[in-house]
């Protein structure tokens, strides 16, 4: 198993990306191909100890974070994103990780790898640390205006990922809506509800915003617009709350003593909330193991994304999605039990 | 100024509602009309000291929390919700507060009070405690499938409310989307963005999920589906985080000592996050001051909702909305500066 890593993508590229790859290589023994400008990557590697599991593929072009995805992918065939995905296609790598322009990663994945059988729209699945266990939110941003049947496809892909990689038997699926009752929802979710109810998935009905971090279901299905807003809301609330608490508990000497006593406890809480612990988000529905890491990824986040990509690759999720999917129209779709 | 209160609505009705009304009356000196079953309300009042500012209007019918809103409103003309709103219409009260079936409150408000001039769809504005100050999120659940022009109307109503009641000069308006760039959004928000840009509102462009609790803008505009999901996500994350922290800091004797030292600080944080501090959410766009309180409202939340309703009533928001609104089609809509 070999993981290709986009060395040029992300707010902290290339330094933190290369450092994360080094850690994954040295600490976890994972074979890694760093894709990007060799003259930039090589010096970062040579100053470090052992890099026996790392190779470099030189690509002269870079797709910037703010470039128009489709245009950039069409023009920059020698970019780290396009070339990294071609390594997957050619069987020279088993998974690809990028913290770069996520729109470009999606566009290039469709272009280079193509879609799984029966999947119209690939989707991003993001793991959110729930109180009672991790929750896979799908779609977290790939499709802003999906049709109801696409939400059914997201639920199907999310269930396979949850079963295989998150190791949850018969994963519970919830549809994100504005109320638990079946009658609650907008046009999209009301129709998607019917499709999900008629499927063989372990559908639990509608869930609400407060279920996102509860862990009452394992897979939460939503459109990419709502999913993206919700994901960033969760991150924002957690950050703000931690900063409000920090301000309060460090005002005054006595409070500082209390804070000192509790620093171990606070560290555990911070760890539970740290996105870097969870690595990347799988792009599900393309013919290859593609992982999108947070644009802000530091070395630790990249190391964990590589670990996750490496583990997921062995489950051959794209093949499972293609093989179990009996094409696309509602009730006929999921004849086989998951 | 007199506030009519639905004594029969909410998970904790009638006890906590009546208690909240008593506190608003005794502590704040607000004149209150409790609307509901007299035989239930009167005994709750008679056991208490002074109730000089409180009167009761007897209504024999109750609309339950899970009843179909439009049907219930049509059938139950003698319910506390319908009669309470008629008091507004008849000028016998200046504001109405209910923690009951919010769909029924909206339906009855449209039916009894009607819409403000130029407003197609009334919307719920909810105040979220932001890090840098309160944020008005509109729509928080009234319209699950609005058109772009409705989002413009929400922004207009939210700006008036923020200026008058929240006392923010020239309030900043943001459009909730899946990215800050103007090109990010679904069909609805891409079109709404253009309308907002062409208006005289203080439009700051798109904002993201993490801005909801930051307070970077004063008014965040969104459809009622996304708004409801986001609102409940914020509540859920805050609750879960507080409970995770509580678990960690109370495990072990030393931690308990630290927690004891910090209890004052924690209380301050809890207060900042307590929805009960913020009272109710205004239903904007109907011809009357209607406030929807949280279904879980306790006496404190009801007291604060009554305080807010009482204060808002003096600003005559519905009249300001009707008078300043130069009808409905995009660019012509907001000729006057706010």
TrEMBL record, chains A, B:
What are the subcellular locations of this protein?
Answer: Cytoplasm
Gene Ontology terms: cellular component: cytoplasm
Q: State one Pfam family annotation.
A: FA_synthesis
Which InterPro entries does this entry report, sorted A to Z? Answer: FA_synthesis, Phospholipid_synth_PlsX-like
One Gene Ontology MF term: phosphate:acyl-[acyl carrier protein] acyltransferase activity
**A GO BP annotation:** fatty acid biosynthetic process
Q: What class of enzyme is it?
A: transferase
The reaction(s) this protein catalyses: a fatty acyl-[ACP] + phosphate = an acyl phosphate + holo-[ACP]
Similarity remark: Belongs to the PlsX family.
Q: What does this protein do?
A: Catalyzes the reversible formation of acyl-phosphate (acyl-PO(4)) from acyl-[acyl-carrier-protein] (acyl-ACP). This enzyme utilizes acyl-ACP as fatty acyl donor, but not acyl-CoA.
Tell me, how does this one assemble? Homodimer. Probably interacts with PlsY.
Name-wise, this protein is Phosphate acyltransferase
Recorded source organism is Thermobaculum terrenum (strain ATCC BAA-798 / CCMEE 7001 / YNP1)
Query: What's the source species' lineage?
Result: Bacteria, Bacillati, Chloroflexota, Chloroflexia, Candidatus Thermobaculales
Name the gene that codes for it.
plsX
């Amino acid at each position: 198993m070999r993981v290709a890593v986009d060395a040029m993508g992300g707010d902290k590229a290339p330094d933190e990306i290369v450092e994360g790859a080094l850690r994954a290589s040295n600490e976890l023994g994972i074979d890694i191909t760093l894709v990007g400008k060799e003259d930039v990557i090589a010096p970062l590697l040579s100053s470090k100890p052992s890099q026996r599991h790392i190779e470099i593929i030189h690509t002269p072009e870079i797709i910037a974070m703010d470039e128009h995805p489709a245009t950039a992918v069409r023009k920059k065939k020698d970019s780290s994103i396009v070339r990294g995905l071609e390594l997957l296609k050619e069987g020279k790598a088993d998974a690809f990780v990028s913290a770069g322009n996520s729109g470009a990663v999606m566009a290039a994945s469709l272009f280079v790898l193509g879609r799984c059988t029966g999947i119209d729209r690939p989707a991003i699945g993001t793991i959110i640390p729930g109180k009672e266990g991790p929750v896979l939110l799908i779609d977290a941003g790939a499709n802003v205006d999906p049709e109801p049947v696409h939400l059914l496809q997201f639920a199907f892909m999310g269930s396979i990922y949850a079963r295989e990689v998150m190791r949850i038997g018969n994963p519970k699926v919830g549809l994100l809506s504005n109320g638990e009752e079946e009658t609650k929802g907008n046009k999209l979710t009301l129709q998607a509800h019917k499709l999900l109810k008629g499927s063989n998935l372990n559908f639990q009905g509608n869930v609400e915003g407060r279920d996102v971090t509860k862990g009452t279901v394992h897979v939460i299905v939503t459109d990419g617009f709502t999913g993206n807003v919700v994901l960033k809301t969760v991150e924002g609330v957690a950050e703000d709350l931690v900063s409000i608490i920090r301000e309060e508990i460090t005002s005054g000497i006595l409070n500082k003593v209390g804070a000192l006593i509790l620093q171990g406890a606070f560290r555990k809480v911070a760890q539970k909330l740290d996105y870097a612990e969870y690595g990347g988000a799988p792009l599900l529905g393309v013919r290859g193991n593609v992982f999108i890491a947070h644009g802000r990824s530091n070395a630790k986040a990249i190391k964990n994304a590589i670990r996750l990509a490496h583990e997921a690759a062995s489950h051959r999720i794209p093949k499972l999605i293609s093989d179990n999917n009996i094409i696309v129209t509602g009730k006929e779709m999921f004849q086989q039990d998951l």
